[in-house]
Each structure stands twice: as structure tokens, then as C-alpha cells.
Specification:
By secondary structure, the protein is of the alpha/beta class. The chain has helices spanning 17-28, 47-63, 80-88, 110-119, 145-148, 163-171, 207-227, 335-347, 354-366, 372-377, 382-407; strands at residues 5-13, 35-41, 69-73, 93-98, 103-105, 126-135, 156-159, 188-191, 285-294, 297-305, 309-321. Strands 1, 2, 3, 4, 5, 6, 7, 8, 9, 10 and 11 form an eleven-stranded mixed sheet that branches.
């Protein structure tokens, strides 16, 4: 752990020095100064190291703390998840802010808005925002920040969690198994707690989902313990209206919009039960707060209180997307994707819910052509397994027939 500070901005790097420069520029523009910057470098050359040396004094001058900038060149390449953890393990802040090196803060008030959301919601363990997706060609990394931050300028668009997802997340964090609309880790700030929560190094495709579900699972267990008096009676602090409803059988299907890391083909349509109208008693509470000066035009951001987490749809971070992504690429039916979701299914005992069992059978067992022995090992009923495979066969036949008619 490093020195005492409010926010640890953890930046795992791999080459792309110009991207790192753009991110550090956006940090210097923030109106919030109680932070430290931690860079862990997995590169094979010294380009990022030179950028770090160039920015060190400027970061220190902004924070007023000599220890507020840390750079580490990994002696051997760790790979993306282990490098993320290398940065997190150096963090000493009360709040953890992961920023991938090709992402950046969209507004000067982005970091302060993340912090304010958690400060004003002490029961929340995690805050997240919408994001601005920006497709970058090779030369785009060198364009200035103001130009890239303009919505609609070039290849960029905003995305954020929808109402159905927010309502479902307030009821049960396990909805993340079906749909991760929280988004990339760069769109998240979370509390450090007694020990910083690391990424699961056995994961790959769904490493962000592992992180979010673990944070929210621990927070839920802690809250449940706090509700119960030694006699087993509920404490006065346990307000029933804020308790997440344990209703896995009616857990909503995931909304179709997913993060860049999520596989869209595995996301089912949102179930009507998840709409705010159908579940108003669990709909996220909202209030208005200043989002900041967006291109000199002040906007009011709607903040959603989800109990264990809090969010805004404002695109506080911009996700840079280009051909030199640090993270691994995954095919449509990559076995590593199956492995990740199999682990999540087991870890959170989702077989206890018929809804999640059906979802896993449809989206993973059938599509990956797994045998019944696999379903049996996971505790999925035979009827659910067979129905999923029949649906997969029917979909294949329908696609074949459609293709034949199109050819004719």
C-alpha cells in the first residue's frame, strides 16, 4: 500500500505511449486533486516509461504530494489481468479508480462526480457511469483531447445502462451474469475496504464481471450481517424498502446493450417484469446533481441509487477502441468464454435458480454443444438441458431454411 490518499488511479499499461499521454492529460484537467497515479508497465520497450517521466512532476505539482505518482516497469510481461492486479496491489487510496491506458476522463468534473456519488451514498460499494465509445485509427491517438471528447465528432457515441437493467440490478446483483451493463472497469470507482478487491486471475473474457459480482456479493453479505441483531432479530437500521428482493426465479433477462467486453450474442431480450412500471417498488431512486461543465454547457446528471451501487448515465469516461487493444480477442464460441461463465455459475450457486439454469443451458450448454454429463455436474435438470438443445436445433434448422430461400 502507498501513502494515504482518497483515490488511487490505477493505470495498467502495455505499449501505446500516446494513449497513456492522452489519459494523463485528462487527469491533469480534473478539478479533483486528492489522488495518486499508479502505472504498471507491461511493455517491451521504454516508450511508456519516458512518458511517465515526463508527467511525474506535473502530477506531483497538481496533487501537492511527492508520493502521488508511481511507475513500475514489470521485469517480465505479466499479461493483462495480472498487470491490472499489479497496479491495484500498489493502491493506498480509499477509492480505487481503474483506468485502462487507451481510455480517458471525458470531462474535467468526471473524477469528482465518481467520488461524490460514493461519498453521498455511504452504503454503496461501487459507482459507475455511462461511457463515450470512441473508435480510434492509428493516428487518432495523437489528436487533442478536446476534439475527441465531442460527441458525434468522428466515430464516437454514448452508451449507458437502461432502466430495465438498473431496476434488475437493484433487486439482484446476479443479473450481471446475464448482462453487464455496468461497462468497462474504466467506467467504475469502488471502495477499497479492508483489502483492495483484485481481478480473478483465472478469468479472461469476463474478468470485469468477476470483479463486480465479487464486490457486490461481499457488500450484500456484509449488509445482511449488519441487519441482524445477536438475537437474530432485524435491527432498526434494516429498512425493508431498501432490501434487494431475493427473487431469482423472476430475475429479468438481460437488456440487449452490453459493454464492449460482453458478447452480444449471449444477451437475451429484457423481460417485461424488469421495467420500472412492473417493479416500481424496486426501481432505482434518483436525484439531480451537477455533472459538470460539458463543453462549457452545464448539464444536470441523473443519479440512480441502486442500494449496493450508484450510477449516472453521463459518459464520465471515454473508452478508446482501436486495433491495438491490450486485452485479448475472443471468438464467438471461444472455450475461455464458456469457462468464465461456468465458474460464475458455480461460484454464485446459480443452479438454485431455474431462471439462471435455463439461461446457462440456452446460452452456453447448447451453443457450446456440451453433453448432459456437464449439465448434471452443474446441477441443471435434464428437462432444462433437453429443452435448450431442442431450441438450438430448431434455430439451426430455421437459419438453414432461411438461407436456402435467400439463395433461391
Amino acid at each position: 500500500m502507498r501513502g494515504k490518499t482518497k483515490v488511487s488511479i490505477c493505470i495498467p499499461c502495455y505499449q501505446q505511449a500516446m494513449d497513456v499521454r492522452r489519459l494523463l492529460d485528462s487527469i491533469l484537467q480534473q478539478d479533483y486533486t486528492d489522488f495518486e497515479v499508479i502505472l504498471t508497465d507491461d511493455s517491451g520497450d521504454d516508450e511508456v516509461e519516458r512518458v511517465a517521466a515526463d508527467y511525474r512532476d506535473r502530477i506531483v505539482a497538481k496533487t501537492g504530494e511527492e508520493t502521488s505518482f508511481f511507475y513500475q516497469r514489470n521485469p517480465v510481461r505479466l499479461g493483462h489481468v495480472r498487470n491490472w492486479n499489479a497496479a491495484l496491489q500498489k493502491a493506498g487510496g480509499e477509492y480505487i479508480k481503474i483506468m485502462f491506458s487507451d481510455d480517458w476522463f471525458t470531462f474535467p468534473t468526471s473524477l469528482s462526480t465518481f467520488v461524490r456519488m460514493l461519498k453521498e451514498h455511504p452504503d454503496a460499494v461501487l459507482s459507475f457511469s455511462g461511457s463515450r465509445q470512441s473508435i480510434l485509427a492509428g493516428e487518432d491517438s495523437q489528436k487533442n483531447l478536446k476534439h475527441l471528447n465531442r460527441k458525434g465528432e468522428g466515430k464516437s457515441w454514448d452508451r449507458a445502462a437502461d432502466e430495465a437493467f438498473l431496476t434488475a440490478l437493484r433487486k439482484d446483483f446476479r443479473i450481471l451474469f446475464q448482462s453487464d451493463q455496468i461497462g468497462a472497469p474504466s467506467a467504475v470507482l469502488y471502495r477499497r475496504g479492508d483489502a483492495v478487491q483484485l481481478f480473478d486471475e483465472e478469468s479472461g473474457f469476463a474478468s470485469d464481471v468477476f470483479l463486480y459480482m465479487e464486490l457486490l456479493s461481499k457488500a450484500e453479505k456484509e449488509r445482511e450481517r449488519g441487519r441482524r441483531a445477536p438475537s437474530g432479530k432485524t435491527t432498526p437500521e434494516a429498512a425493508p424498502e431498501t432490501a434487494p428482493e431475493a427473487a431469482p426465479e423472476t430475475t429479468p433477462e438481460a437488456a440487449p446493450e452490453t459493454t464492449p467486453e460482453a458478447a452480444p450474442e449471449t444477451t437475451p431480450e429484457a423481460a417485461p417484469e424488469t421495467t420500472p412500471e412492473a417493479a416500481s417498488e424496486t426501481a432505482p431512486r434518483t436525484f439531480m446533481t451537477k455533472a459538470g461543465d460539458r463543453a462549457t454547457g452545464a448539464d444536470e446528471a441523473q443519479i440512480h441509487d441502486l442500494g449496493l451501487c450508484v450510477c449516472t448515465r453521463e459518459p464520465l469516461t471515454t473508452i478508446g477502441i482501436h486495433e491495438h487493444q491490450y486485452t485479448e480477442s475472443f471468438g464467438e464460441k471461444d472455450e475461455r468464454i464458456y469457462k468464465d461463465y461456468r465458474l460464475l455459475f458455480q461460484k454464485y450457486e446459480l443452479q438454485k435458480s431455474r431462471e439462471y439454469s435455463r439461461y446457462f443451458a440456452d446460452e452456453y450448454l447448447a451453443k457450446y454443444h456440451k453433453p448432459y454429463a456437464e449439465a448434471k455436474e452443474l446441477g441443471i435438470p435434464f428437462s432444462v438441458f433437453v429443452t435448450a438443445h431442442l431450441r438450438e436445433i430448431l434455430a439451426t434448422v430455421q437459419s438453414f431454411i432461411k438461407a436456402r430461400f435467400m439463395v433461391q
